[in-house]
Design goal:
By secondary structure, the protein is α+β, with helices and mostly antiparallel strands. The chain folds into 4 domains: 7-48, no CATH class; 55-111, no CATH class; 115-186, no CATH class; 198-253, no CATH class. The chain is 46% helix and 13% strand. It starts with 6 loop residues before the first helix and ends with a helix. The chain binds zinc ion.
Length: 254
Amino acid sequence: MDERVDLLDFVQNKMTMTNYYQPVVIKTLLTGGGRATREDLARELLLGDPDTLPSALRTLQRWPWITLRKRGVVERAPSSSDWVLRAKFAESDIPAIIAACDTALHAWAKRFPRKQASQRIRLISEAGGCCQACGARPPKVELDIDHIIPRARAKNDCVPKPGGGLMHVDDERNLQVLCASCNRGKRDQGGFDFRPSEEHLARAIALTLDIAASHGYDIDLVFNRGRSLHVTGLNLHVPEPALRVDATTAASDA
Ligand SMILES: [Zn+2]
């Protein structure tokens, strides 16, 4: 009962994997002399995630490298991709510099609460796990939460609310899911709202009718008891208010 398993035998023959977690944990424990804190294990799990490291490398290269190099804080080590500190500092100042970094991190964490991480996952799942502009999904693309009206355009952290008034720039009504390339394409221009809406549905149906007409198809729209819309054999389920928009579009198209 109390017999201890043979680790080599376990890893080579008995370990069944549904994810990459077990070998990461065993490696971390081994390199830590057989023991590790939960924080260390969690950190190694993050690093072991095949998606996390490439994405962290891209982030590293994009933001901190550009800014810190421009400000003369870091530079590239000669004939290497390593970074080195270029700024001068006294050995005796190191504890104070580290304390100041921790203060800055603490202030940042307070400004952007933890709930953001779970909110991010929820928004992505509500968007069907894909970019709301182009439909691309991971692992082909990275998904980001985008501010429809960018933070840079907010005044006192507030942006105009649809229908009047103001809302916080991080309000969910101002957030959408975009892939990195759609996000880059949009950059700091505000107002590109790619989320599904009645307006988008109406526009998509009108466009479909136009394309069909230009190819000589005579499309018949049948509104079935106010709940669904038949388009030549297609049965699209659309919510009631959207239907009214569609009906108008269809009517004005006819
Ligand atoms: Zn996209």
